[in-house]
Amino acid sequence: MTLIELLIAVVIVGIIAAIAYPSYTNHVIKSHRTVALSDLSRIQLELETSYDGGYDWSHILSGGTCALCDSDTNRFSFDIASSASTAYTITATAKSALGQDDDECLTGSKTITLTSTNVEEPSDCWN
Q: Which structural domain range is residue 27 located in?
């Protein structure tokens, strides 16, 4: 193999990598968002299953880390806010450590939410 052939092969590999890497990164971000969506539903199911006149999530969340979730703790943190004993909002916030906050689906506050009345925001992320 001559030097010219080797350089041509290196250029071709470089072009393919330049095209493939952004697509790969986008798919990784989407797959982690899907896991976070599943975890929001899992948290909601646990809250509804253990409801006894009020919601207790102390066994589910601690410091933004979910005990029963599959999400990477470097990509999402979780929170539950409750303004009444019969209402809550579960939030997954994308973190910047591994680029999850670059998710094109998430805008503004970089959060995904699910409420006790099944309102899902942003709705495009849930499709």
A: 3-126
